[in-house]
Every structure is written in structure tokens, then in C-alpha cells.
């Protein structure tokens, strides 16, 4: 769903990820047809990066919980 939004409305993607300054910059880029493509690519990259960060945080927390359970 976020990938589709990133392609159609790049600025909305940044606002959903709580990055208002990037959203404002993407909105300015979106105002021109030429700027739409870089804004969409930037939004796609950001969505992918956000997804990777969440996966890493989940893996680190699971690893921490396993180590903690061994100590108890």
C-alpha cells in the first residue's frame, strides 16, 4: 500500500512516516511534472529504508530477549 502511495502521492508518504520537512520538499517537487519522478523515486527509497529499519529493530529486540531469558 505504501509503495502505491509513494508512486502516486510522494509527499503523503513522507507525512505518513512522520517526516514533515521531507514531505514539504516532495510537495514542492511534485508541483512540476519533471520533479514528480525524482520525488516518487525518493519516496520509494524512503519506504524501503523504513521497512528495513523496522525489520532490524525487530530482529535486535528478539535477539535481546533471547539473551535476557538465558541469563534469568
Q: How is this structure best described in words?
A:
It is found in: Membrane. One of its GO terms (cellular component) is membrane. It comes from Janthinobacterium violaceinigrum. Keywords: Membrane, Transmembrane, Transmembrane helix. This is YqaE/Pmp3 family membrane protein. This protein is mainly α and 72 residues long. The protein has one domain (1-64). 89% of the residues lie in helices and 0% in strands. The longest helix is centred in the C-terminal third of the chain and has 39 residues, at 33-71. The radius of gyration is 17 Å and the shape is elongated.
Structural class: mainly alpha
Distance between the termini: 41 Å
Query: On the 0-100 scale, what is the average pLDDT?
Result: 86
For the sheet with most strands, the description reads: none
The overall number of domains is 1
Number of helices: 4
Unreliable spans are none
- H/E element sequence: HHHH
Please report which band the strand proportion falls in: under 5%, 5-15%, 15-25%, 25-35%, 35-45% or over 45%. under 5%
Q: How many strands in all?
A: 0
Q: Report Rg.
A: 17 Å
Tell me the overall shape. Answer: elongated
The proportion of residues forming helix, as a percent range, comes to over 70%
Amino acid at each position: 500500500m505504501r509503495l502505491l502511495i509513494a508512486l502516486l502521492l510522494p509527499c503523503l508518504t513522507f507525512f505518513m512516516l512522520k517526516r514533515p520537512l521531507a514531505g514539504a520538499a516532495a510537495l514542492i517537487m511534485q508541483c512540476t511534472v519533471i520533479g514528480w519522478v525524482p520525488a516518487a523515486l525518493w519516496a520509494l527509497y524512503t519506504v524501503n529504508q523504513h521497512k528495513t529499519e523496522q525489520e532490524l529493530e525487530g530482529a535486535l529486540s528478539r535477539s535481546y530477549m533471547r539473551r535476557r531469558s538465558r541469563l534469568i
